[in-house]
Design goal:
The complex is a heterodimer. Chain A is an all-alpha fold. Chain A contains six helices and no strands. In chain A, α1 packs antiparallel against α2 and α2 runs antiparallel to α3. In chain B, α1 packs antiparallel against α2 and α2 runs antiparallel to α3. The chains are: A mainly alpha, B mainly alpha. The interface between A and B is large, with 95 and 76 residues.
Amino acid sequence: MSTNELQAILFYLVAAITALCAIGVVVTQHIVRAATWLLFTLAGTAGVFFLLGADFVAAIQILVYVGGTLVLVVFGVMLTAQSPFISLRASAAEWAIGTVVGFLLFGMLAVSLYSANWNFPEPGQTASPKNSMNSVVLGESLLGFEEATPAANMTGFPPGAAPPSRKAVAYLLPFEIVSVHLLVVLIGAAYLARARRRRQATST
Amino acid sequence: MTVTLTHYLVLGALLFVCGALCMALKRNGIGVLMGVELVLNGANVNFVALAHFNPAFAVEGQIFALFVIVMAAAEAAIALAIVLNFYNNHLSVDVDTAEELKG
């Protein structure tokens, strides 16, 4: 069995799990079950990232999404559930419209994806440990080291125009902005969830 | 039998459509939040797939995916705080009951 075949089999396996679980999130009526389907969808997406050679992103996906965000969602479910299995059903007409719209949207996206031709400067690198983008490379590119970013030309230019050679780009400032944004959002979320309870305690 | 970029992009499109449908069809506020998570995951699959197949995007795709993950965590935190507030006010998470601002 060649590497390509193994990769294809693994991709179809992981993609099928991810897609089925994503459909399960939509179809199921119980919010707890939807959270469980979402758990497997996020884990499957992490598997897809591993297949694409993005080890660090996959690890962060599992840590932050599966370990953090999903736990947050489950706590939200527990704090807002009237009964163990609340079910707020949409009507049959809404389901019919939603299914039709979903199939149309997916069909449009799939057709446009299959009809697009991607001409990239060189064939994609294989997912071997040697040239995988590990956390060291990502950290160096955050700091703007030129040797961390591969020497390839930028894509997306019309055929006549000469693409400029790629310069090292530092993503340190966006990273800092995102960090401060996350801090502000978490403080805001704690304030939002706390102020309400204090007022309720004084009113009762 | 080789996996091309289109396969990954179709998977991302499927995740996006599932998320959009989840946002539209769920009446539970937390269900809508799960739909947003699915949409962001579809975008992330696209980012990482293009990072793998386009050498000029190798670093940016993964860094943008990391940014999206952090943003999704922030969005989930703030949205859950809003849902909790809404539940304290209405004793329900049904998004159809939020109609005080309806004109």
